[in-house]
Amino acid sequence: MARVEKLSEADVTSRLPEVPGWEVTDGKLQRTFTFDNFVQAFGFMTRVALLAESMDHHPDWSNVYHRVTIGLNTHDVGGISQLDFELASKINHLMS
Amino acid sequence: MARVEKLSEADVTSRLPEVPGWEVTDGKLQRTFTFDNFVQAFGFMTRVALLAESMDHHPDWSNVYHRVTIGLNTHDVGGISQLDFELASKINHLMS
């Protein structure tokens, strides 16, 4: 795997339009998804889990009934990296 | 379904020994489970999701890599009820 580097704040800001719906909160890329019910929310989480495992890059996330909040950062570099944008983009594609 | 009632603080405290590992935090029954890796943690979450859906009683929970934190309360009664103890007990049995 290519070396992963922490993106500067300016880089993160300029790249946010690549991942509609995501914003920077507490140093993470974050987005909340709302579904009709728990089954739909957890079905979505299962798809994200498989994506995350295949990338070996995992979210910090929470779920309350029909709502899933996902936070992405890269612990190894102490910030947001290219990997986070890749995973955010793939998660967005799950929804499209 | 029998009517669900909010348990008093005294009732909750006296019943905590029924669900080893759980404590009361922010008005919820809460326990954190730690696994070897993400696959094990998410596998556990899947089993809990099926339990929760079958009970129509869902957790507030979060996951960071190998760690899963589960909070249980009953929104309809604004506190901890018998349902929370039932789900906590069933989750403990998943681990045994």
TrEMBL record, chains A, B:
Q: What is the reaction catalyzed?
A: (4aS,6R)-4a-hydroxy-L-erythro-5,6,7,8-tetrahydrobiopterin = (6R)-L-erythro-6,7-dihydrobiopterin + H2O
Q: Name one Pfam family in it.
A: Pterin_4a
Look up the record and give one Gene Ontology term from the biological process aspect.
tetrahydrobiopterin biosynthetic process
Recorded hits in InterPro entries, A to Z, give: PCD_sf, Pterin_deHydtase
Keywords from UniProt, A to Z, are: Lyase
* Annotated EC: 4.2.1.96
Please name the GO terms that the record assigns under molecular function.
4-alpha-hydroxytetrahydrobiopterin dehydratase activity
Give the family from UniProt: Belongs to the pterin-4-alpha-carbinolamine dehydratase family.
Know the name of this protein? Putative pterin-4-alpha-carbinolamine dehydratase
**Organism source for this protein?**
Entotheonella factor
